[in-house]
Amino acid sequence: xxxxxxxxxxxxxxxxxxxxxxxxxxxxxxxxxxxxxxxxxxxxxxxxxxxxxxxxxxxxxxxxxxxxxxxxxxxxxxxxxxxxxxxxxxxxxxxxxxxxxxxxxxxxxxxxxxxxxxxxxxxxxxxxxxxxxxx
Length: 135
Prior knowledge:
- The protein is mainly α.
- Helix content is 59%, strand content 0%.
- The chain has two domains: 18-67, no CATH class; 72-135, no CATH class.
- The two termini are 32 Å apart.
């Protein structure tokens, strides 16, 4: 019985491939548009992708920080860290733009879903909740 438990833990902690990590991220992006920016077979960047520079940046960040030597958990924690840093950067830009007085409150123009995410963001003091839970 112990051998089965050990194999289950080992399988859970096995490394993911770059494509698997990108596919996980793509599943959470509207219309899975991240897939336009990488080759499904290799994870290599697709230079012919176009139409969503945020998706492009996300794929580039994930590719640049991917480490095949990490466990699955560590790989996903790294993706979380990188994305939370990007959120912090975007929030900083948003605050600067709003503070300039030249932008109407962009928050008035967000969807209900965006309002929910923005509220979560603000409730965390402008920090990604996942990043706060990281050691």
